[in-house]
Amino acid sequence: MTSPQIGSYHILHPLGQGGMGVVHKARHQETGEVVALKTIRVVDEMQLESIRREVRALARIKHPGIVRIVAEGVQDGLPWYAMDFVEGMTLRQYITRQQGYALRQPIEFVSGEATPDLWWTGNLGRARDTARTARGQDHCPATARAQSVSMRGKLSQVLPLVSKLCSPLAFLHGEGIVHRDLKPENIMVTRDGTPIVVDFGLMTRFTGEESREILTVEYGAVGTVSYMAPEQIQGEFVDARADMYALGCILYELLVGHPPFIGVNSAQIIQAHLHGTPAPPSRFRPEVQTELDDLVSRLMTKDPRERIGHADVVATSLIQLSDDKITIEGPKPKTYLYRARCTGRETAMEKLRRYSRELKRNRGGFLFIGGESGIGKTRLVMEFGRELAREGVMVLTGECSEIACRPLEAFLKPLQAIADRCRERGLEETERLLGRRGKVFALYEPAMIDLPGQEQYPEPAELPPDAAKLRLYSYLSETFRELSTPTPVALLLDDLQWTDELSLGFFEYECRINHLTRAPIVMIGTYRSESVEEELHKIIDTSGVERINLGRLDDTSIATMVGDMLGMSPPPGSFSQYLSLQSAGNPLFVSEYLRVAIDIGLLSRNEQGAWQLEVDLDNRIPEMDVYEKLPIPTSLQGLIERRLESLSDNARAPVEAAAIVGREVSILLLWEMTGLDDEELLIVVDALLQHQILEKSSSGTVRFSHGQIRDISLSQLGRERRKELHRSAAESIELVYARQLEQYQAELGMHWVQAGDTDKAKSCYLSAARRSRDRYDHKEAVRLYSAYLNLVTSVTKEYLTVRCERGDVLQGSGHYDAALEDYAAACDKTDDEEMLTACRRKEAFILQTIGDISGARQAYHEALMLSEIFPLEQARILNEMAYFEGYLQSNYKEAENICKKAHDLVMSLYPSIQDYFATSSSDFVQHRIPRVACQVLAGTFYRFGVVHYTRGNLDRALEFHQKSLAICEEIGDRQGIGTASNNIGNVYHARGNLDRALVFHQKSLTIGKEIDDRQDIGKTLCNIGRVYHARGNLDQAIEFFQKSLAIFEEIGDRRNIGTALCNIGNVYHAHGNLDRALEFYQKYLAIDEKIGDRRGIGMASGNIGNVYLAYGDLDLALEFYQRSLAIFEEIGDKPIEAEAMMELSETHRIRGDLPRALKLNSQAMEIFTEVGNILKTGDCWCRRAECDIDRGNFSAAHDSFTRAKEIYEQIKGGEYSWRIPLIKVRLTIAKLGTETDKHRSEKTEQVVEQARNLVEEAHDNPRIPFKIEAPFRLGMALKAQGASEDAQASLEQALALARKYGYGLLERQIMKVMGEQQAG
To answer: Where are the TPR repeats (predicted)?
Structure first.
């Protein structure tokens, strides 16, 4: 049977197994060399690449006490590495044989494994209850005391062995490596008694205070429980002192025979490590000296800052305690610094912890942290993130780049993490977190492509830019909220001063809708205060968003930092004062100063382990001038330059290459750019990592440890060298990222322009600009379009096309003046009539948007003249002109004529369209009608329908909207289908067919939800609310209006927010709640005043006037009506101005100023007749009839009433049509005085009967004025009949209703009639 093979090695048999992998004995198939081969379990490719990089770094370490790695690789997705097979035994086996007792087998623990009584949340609490050790008590089980009897007399072997073990440990730590799983099983002892450290499966790197932290929060405790330091158990950052703790545990075990803490399960042992105190070794072995007890205690101190931090210090102490001469071999270790605690940020951290408490209450929030470069923003957030991770919060990190800002960049890494989670957990989790949203996210983050189940969803529907952005924002919000169930989520986002437009848009969206306070999600962003742009400032200053401004550190904090990095407690006094003064409280300066001092050999440790910097740092006497004379730069720039100068030529090459590429660079790209072979590059990068020039980022990438290191590296490059490197970067990117090149076009453009190849730069910039445009990142698109245009030296067709494209993007983002400049430039220099036509059309659209009516009209006519040879473009222009004349100018007759021209034009181009409408079985494909022609025609029918609807011609409006719907359904235009359905619903509503209206609005709502057009959804909900309002269902109407209001507030559509508020006010008004109506109208007015919407201000003022008129406060009503009319006169909107005249006319009628009332009514009617608004003309006749009654001209009143009634019957509706029966009764009552006695009785009987019918109708009529006026008219009719008691009863009923609902005007009118009756 053939033995299994891994790489070039035949597996012989297993040597051991642990939580992270298996160790085999193996033989090389060619050389016969016997090795120990370890396979390592990994979770994903990112972890795999990281492990391989670390293994290669280990392979370069040469020390007799560290096992040599001879080969590494990957097989079946598992990384492996081969080590020298050490002839000997493990330390556990060695002690068993040499000392005659067996060390206890340890309990291994790896975070996340399904071992018994795993610990972190509930189990740790249980351990606290069940552990037999108490805080502050010695851990000294009786069994341990009994076992220790046979161990006396063995110190002569223990002390030399451990002192020799310190040498490889010190060397490892000098290389920036911490083992993390130091235990007797991972220490081999050769036949001559030399200890050798093996099995680096859990190794990691540690560094001193990082120049610039990377925002990553990796949490997870790994190791073997019996030897894990408290900080390692708690998942905190670990450094060499975690290994020193493990060394103390091993020394304790060698002295005593068992680990310092033992228990029946891992939870008990963990509790003891965190809180227990082991009995001193001398309690078991009286011969153990007090100094050795003290050494063990100092190694096992809970606080790593109080722990012995250097293995060579331990070795020196053990040699001094040993009676034998001990010789330690091996190279001298390098000096290293420790990471300082996050000091001086207690107030800021307490603010952050408030959010942690909020998460536990299922609430979240938004926080920004600002400060100057190097002040410690990222470090603070990272520390908080690790606290959150320990509490079970899911922590996701993101960041923004200075060089090339990709769309949605701040959230790409969180989306990658979500994609990884979906791949790991499968279809059910993917459906929960993403569903149809995944297809939209895939436009920005390729990791979202091909996730489980995504193939079942269609591609996202095309939407207008603003609607597409809103869809993206709502999807992100929904996915993050799903992710936070059941685990709270923290989004930690770094360097937001460089963020992109879409990320900013999402921040603004979340701040506005305030979802974070209603879900366990906290979003924390950092930014450089000196580099913040206005857009981010606006978000930071938003009400409800908390901000922390990090200042510089004080003297005490700097001293603490220095002490932590040097591992000295207390810190060196005068030296700390000097650094505080020189740094001005900037922690980056302090770490760079210490690092430079070590690099150039001025800062070192003496044989006793004490630090010295020319003078002994324990000496606190030196004055400041002693430090000032040291040959170390005293500026941050000087310190960084000094470190860069010390680099070798081999090391300088990747630093220069990385500086050219940007903040972050892949190892593969460095390899391609530098020309170094694989091994050389890894050696150099490893050295740069250790010296904190670079730091690890994501898998396979490194980055500068601080932006200033990159800036200074870049500034030191000569012009030609920089040009050479940019060319190398561009060529290397094209090779390395050939399959994803579209994502790197912006970077390529920058490199090619710096390399002097403008043709390639232009191509890349243009491609990148269009990609950003298609992803709605308008700001970045404009930047890239501008970069292209700046390289153009002559006017070409492509140049002019790009000017137009940039103009389109500028227009879409509201930069109208800049867009007009681009269009004008293209118009001035092009001889392409099609381009000229399109530019003029776009100019006209902008001019109408900004209110330049005459300019818009002129531009449209110019475009129309130019478009004669481009018929489809001409039809499109006509459609826009119809919108301009109809909707904006209310010139409906002209709009209808323009629509007819557009219709006839398309029909002349494609006569077979007539066959389509004549034959239901045919289709547009069959008749070879292009999609663009169909879209233009659908737009024409839409505008036709709107014009006829506004004029009150509902049958024709329905016909055209149905045609528009048919075309949209034929070509699959989902958004068009939704719009047409909504319009058809509006027509049915106006005709009184509320059931059919509801069917079409529901269809529109369904489509809106399918394509996630939030704005259309909001508008449709408004329309459904109007249907329920018309049905008299107050509660449901309010419900739908509130839903629409919530959507408009979510998307920030303030104009439609006002519309929704107005609709709610209308419901309350119609149903008699005048106070609530006034409240919502006033909110409507406040919003329009805030956004400067003059039209909206006028409409809101008119609505408020209506309420005051109902109250009977004619002075205030007149004031608001006059304000409304003045605004409409100012903006020149004649039809709306006419509506204001109607309201003002009614007020003057009630005040008794009938001549003015009739004059205003006549002026309004003239305007409505001129623009062809039949419906409003009917309303004017209705109002005029009441004026005629008041002045006693019953013949004229009858004529006016008849005309109004005919119009309402023709158009099947009208705003005042409900008043027709009331006016008829009032007119009949008024005319009774002119009748002869013969006819009077007969007429009185008729009018009483009519009035009784009104009262019956009032039961089902939702309008409160109708409910009041019906018994009022009946009372007047009964009074005319002489039925005084019945008349009084009806009038009292009307009066009670008027008082109940606050209709003061009707109350006074009723009381006047009642007074006349009583007087009679």
So the answer is: 938-971, 1018-1051, 1058-1091, 1098-1131
**Is 1047 a domain residue?**
no
What's the longest Cα–Cα distance across the chain? 144
The H-assigned helical ranges of 567-609 are: 573-583, 587-599
Characterize the bridge pairing of strands 701-704 and 694-696: antiparallel
Say whether both 181 and 315 belong to one domain.
yes
| Two tokens, residue 293 | 């007890």
Strand locations in 41-167, DSSP E?
69-75, 78-84, 88-90, 108-110, 138-139
CATH number, position 72: 3.30.200.20
* Distance, CA of 625 to CA of 348 (rounded, Å): 35
3-state SS, one letter per residue, for 1041-1073: HHHHHHHHHHHCCHHHHHHHHHHHHHHHHHCCC
Q: Is residue 768 part of a domain?
A: no
Assess whether 239 and 277 both reside in one domain: yes
Binding site, residues? 38
Q: What CATH number does residue 146 fall under?
A: 1.10.510.10
Residues 58 and 103 in one domain: no
pLDDT at residue 1280, as a whole number: 79
> For residue 522, what are the domain limits?
346-425+476-549
C-alpha 956 chain-centroid distance = 46
The dihedral sign for the CA sequence 778, 784, 790, 791: negative
Number of other residues whose CB lies within 10 A of the CB of residue 78: 16
Q: What are phi and psi of 861, to 5 degrees?
A: -65, -35
How many structural domains are present in the chain? 4
Binding residues for ATP: 38
User: Using CA of residue 821, residue 823, residue 824, residue 825, what is the dihedral sign?
Assistant: positive
Beta carbons of 226 and 249 less than 8 angstroms apart: yes
Residues 270 and 362 in one domain: no
| pTM score | 0.74
Does residue 923 lie within any of the structural domains?
no
Q: Which one, of 763, 801, 755, lies nearest residue 784 by Cα?
A: 763
Structure confidence at residue 124 as a pLDDT band (50, 70, 90): very low
Q: What is the pLDDT of residues 1262-1311, one digit of tens each?
A: 778 888 888 888 888 888 778 888 888 888 888 898 888 888 888 888 88
* 1236-1261 tens-digit pLDDT: 566 677 778 888 888 888 888 877 77
Which among 246, 252, 240 is positioned nearest to 309, based on CA atoms?
240
Return the structure tokens found at 237: 């950052």
State the pLDDT at residue 919. Answer: 56
Residues 45 and 149 grouped into a single domain? no
Task: Count Cβ atoms below 10 Å from residue 720 Cβ, excluding itself.
Answer: 8
The token duo for 1269 is 């006026």
Last-in-domain residue among 85, 119, 151: 85
Give me the mean pLDDT over the 15-35 stretch.
87
- Residue 250 shares a structural domain with residue 303: yes
> Would 726 be classed as within a structural domain?
no
Alpha helical stretches, state H, 31-80: 45-59
| CA–CA separation, 280 and 169 (whole Å) | 24
Paired sense of beta strands 187-190 and 88-90, if any: antiparallel
* 21-28, strands of its sheet edge to edge: 5-6, 9-18, 21-28, 34-40, 78-84, 69-75
Q: What digits encode the pLDDT tens for the residues 502-554?
A: 999 999 888 887 777 789 999 999 999 888 888 888 888 887 788 999 999 99
CATH assignment of the domain containing 384: 3.40.50.300
Cα separation, 579 vs 130, in Å, equals 49
CB within 8 Å of 1185: residues ≥ 6 apart: 1197, 1198, 1200, 1201, 1204, 1223, 1227
pLDDT in tens, 68-99: 889 988 888 788 889 899 888 889 888 777 65
Do 245 and 379 share a domain, yes or no?
no
Q: Which of 598, 630, 634, 594 is nearest to 614 (CA)?
A: 630
Alpha carbon distance 927, 910 (integer Å): 9
Beta-bridge partners for 371: 528
